[in-house]
Amino acid sequence: MRYENAKDDSVQTYVRFQKMRPKVKVALERLISFAETSDARQAKTVASLLLSIPGYGTFNLAELKSLNGPVRRDVLLCIEAACYGLIVYTVPGGLLRCIEAAKAHGLLSSDDAELLRQILGGAAVAPQPTSSDEQI
User: Fold this and answer.
1) DSSP 8-state symbol, 60
2) What is the pTM of this model?
């Protein structure tokens, strides 16, 4: 498809993300847990990615090479889902957990982590699903 012929597919994009959401939730939970509980180099890379999804850090795509197969698949799924919305809200408390994992891996100072928590306030809590949202 040529770019000039591209149509607005925002409805299709929303439907695709809603179909992906259960898989994304599981993958994101695995990644957050891995970043929280492991001291491996891969966990630091995952924490860097998780912090970059909402725009609070940077992630070098070349680091994907350092991830093993299952971790890489979860990361790629989350990167794709990030194109459709703020996936950190897919897991309750996910954003705060990402900040803590990044701090634990030395990606954020204690002061920066505290500042982000203060800035986010209630925004770091997962929004409650509306009646039209799929309950997962």
Assistant:
1) -
2) 0.72
